């Protein structure tokens, strides 16, 4: 596996005013849309199917296959909904795409809409990222005024910031003005989605990858990545690395290779554990440095590729403390619709807090295992699984730290200042921090 980066979505991020239509067109923008309009919708679907593009939002379902699930046209509307509700702790790839180059997403929306027969597309965005919302609105307006959308209507909708709305059916309920809670499936969105009409729901990066496939062809895209995980993707490195950021590379690259590109772990420290796809994916350790970061490779190691949010933690970090913070998040974000998640996350939070404070008991650890096991696979949607997996994988790899929580606080075993990326310095007039990593 080569360690060569493949800047496709990130290719013009360093260009002057990269978010504008003028800059995007200077770099070949909207040529793919012109080419797509020369093809029949069915041919566009087959092209994306042949490319092997898999959903970049986490599940990895084949994108073209998802499009093909729509029933035959019946004269009524059908919709495309772009899931831009990036909420997973550690995940930060879609917002940079929309901020630095919103037109690659809009071009992808236009091509996808042509492929599925959609006349009104929606981009559902987290309302907190107001600057991105405004940039998307401006980009849609630019494309409309330039006559590029040819009657396609694109609505950019700002959600209220609920993690559960990252689940596609909860997103659809929110978009319709209801409380964001997952729907019972079937029917699936392809049959009865937005406003009970056939709907395709895809992630930002998935749709933004379509113009490159139309221009480069399916063979170009399958030439990147691995046989079952084709193409390029954004890998978001955060935490204890010397140069955190976005690294666009072929799927199948390893964490060892990415760490080399990122300058390695901060000086004087070593890798302890990491997440391959955000906090909802089972944690891995330094024993997994060389697994291919593709869907099959990561699954074979007992985790999930997810959103490729690589959170890197060195030996100064308490696993118990990290898992406890994640459980705080999932408990807060549980929509309360189903009992395993609503009640289970409450109990996980209570036990994790006791272990973090050194007040746990051996019975608490057995309770953790029991509760996590009763949440996993029994919840209405994947949020419950997201809460259970870090607990289970934490116990699998670092059980001794959980057992230490029966007598010693995590802050004593792993002092906060040891894992901090900044220390008191002479920084700013308001008592700022001096970065030491």
From TrEMBL:
Pfam families hit by this protein: Complex1_51K, NADH_4Fe-4S, SLBB
Name of the protein described by the UniProt record: NADH-quinone oxidoreductase subunit F
GO molecular function, one term: metal ion binding
Cofactor: [4Fe-4S] cluster; FMN
Biological function: NDH-1 shuttles electrons from NADH, via FMN and iron-sulfur (Fe-S) centers, to quinones in the respiratory chain.
A Gene Ontology biological process term: cellular respiration
NCBIfam families registered for this protein in UniProt: nuoF_fam, PRK13596.1
Transmembrane parts of this sequence: none
Gene name, Swiss-Prot/TrEMBL: nuoF
Domain NADH-ubiquinone oxidoreductase 51kDa subunit iron-sulphur binding stretches: 320-365
Family: Belongs to the complex I 51 kDa subunit family.
Top-level EC class: translocase
């Amino acid at each position: 596996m080569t360690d060569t980066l493949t800047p496709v979505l990130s290719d013009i991020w360093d260009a002057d005013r990269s978010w504008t239509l003028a800059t995007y067109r200077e770099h070949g923008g909207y040529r793919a849309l012109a080419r797509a309009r020369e093809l029949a919708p069915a041919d566009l679907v087959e092209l994306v199917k042949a490319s092997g593009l898999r959903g970049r939002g986490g599940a990895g379902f084949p994108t073209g296959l998802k499009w093909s699930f729509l029933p035959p046209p019946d004269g009524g509307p059908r919709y495309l909904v772009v899931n831009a509700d990036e909420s997973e702790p550690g995940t930060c790839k879609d917002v940079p795409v929309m901020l630095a180059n919103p037109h690659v997403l809009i071009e992808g929306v236009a091509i996808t809409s042509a492929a599925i027969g959609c006349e009104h597309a929606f981009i559902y965005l987290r309302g907190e990222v107001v600057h991105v919302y405004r940039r998307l609105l401006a980009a849609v307006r630019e494309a409309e005024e330039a006559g590029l959308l040819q009657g396609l209507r694109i609505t950019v909708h700002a959600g209220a910031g609920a993690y559960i709305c990252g689940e596609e059916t909860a997103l659809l309920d929110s978009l319709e003005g209801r409380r964001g809670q997952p729907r019972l499936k079937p029917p699936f969105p392809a049959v009865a989605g937005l406003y009970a009409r056939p709907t395709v729901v895809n992630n930002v990066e998935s749709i933004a990858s379509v113009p490159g496939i139309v221009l480069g062809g399916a063979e170009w895209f399958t030439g990147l990545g691995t046989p079952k995980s084709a193409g390029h993707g954004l890998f978001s490195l955060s935490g204890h690395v010397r140069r955190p950021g976005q690294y666009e590379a072929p799927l199948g690259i390893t964490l060892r290779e990415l760490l080399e590109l990122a300058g390695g772990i901060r000086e004087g420290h070593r890798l302890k554990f990491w997440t391959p796809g955000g906090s909802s994916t089972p944690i891995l350790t330094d024993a997994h440095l060389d697994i291919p970061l593709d869907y099959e490779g990561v699954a074979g190691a007992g985790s999930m590729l997810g959103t490729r949010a690589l959170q890197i933690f060195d030996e100064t970090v308490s696993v118990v403390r990290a898992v406890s913070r994640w459980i705080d998040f999932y408990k807060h974000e549980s929509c309360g619709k189903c009992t395993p998640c609503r009640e289970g996350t409450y109990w996980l939070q209570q036990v994790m807090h006791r272990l973090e404070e050194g007040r746990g008991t051996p019975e608490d650890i057995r309770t953790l295992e029991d509760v996590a096991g009763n949440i996993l696979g029994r919840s209405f949607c994947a949020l419950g699984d997201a809460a259970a997996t870090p607990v289970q994988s934490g116990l699998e790899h670092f059980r001794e730290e959980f057992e230490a929580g029966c007598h010693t606080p995590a802050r004593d075993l792993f002092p906060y200042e040891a894992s901090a990326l900044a220390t008191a310095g002479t920084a700013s007039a308001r008592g700022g921090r001096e970065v030491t990593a």
